[in-house]
Amino acid sequence: MVGVCSDITERKQAEAERKAVEEERARLLVREQAVRAEIERASRLKDRLKADGATRDIPIIILTARKEPGGAQRAVQAGCAAYLTKPCRPAELVAVIRKVLSEQQSV
Description:
Elements: E1 2-5, H1 10-23, E2 28-33, H2 37-50, E3 60-64, H3 71-77, E4 82-85, H4 90-106
Parallel strand pairs: 1-2, 2-3, 3-4
């Protein structure tokens, strides 16, 4: 199960992520991001996931329309598994998801 959480208000975003993780048992979260502050939000999400033994290993992939210098590096430093910019071919997204899940299983 992959949870896809689009860029919406932070409160709704947190609720969508909680539902994906707790109710739908997502194994990976893809966050569609639109602004720079979203990396910080992803970092806070990663901190919340790490606090719970059942969710600490769920990886986060950021998908953004903004190609910012250093964005990928900041995302990885925030604990995200991958950072993709739009336009992104569906095959590329699927390949990244498979790679992240494969790496997760090998740990």
